[in-house]
Amino acid sequence: MYLKIENDKLLILVVYVDDIIFGSNKEDMSQNFVLVMKKEFEMSLLGELIYFLGLQVQQNKDSIFFITNQVSQEDLEEIWDGGFKTSMYPYGNRM
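Above: the chain sequence. Below: its structure as tokens.
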């Protein structure tokens, strides 16, 4: 995972085998990333992420949820190399 932070802007980039998954809290930062990548590489945009590593992904304005009924905590820890922690709160809700 890679992070780029510029003032109040955040770009998160995840590379998995031959896939790149990215998102930002500012649309212009995402669009600039796409332009730079398309200049350097042949790529296509597949749209909003809805499924990743066996997890359903639901997004709204303030949060991202990973949903599963079939993946255990142990499976997630193996996928994320022990760096996965559960939370009562969605990522966007900092209580």
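Residues 75 and 81 are 10 Å apart (CA to CA).
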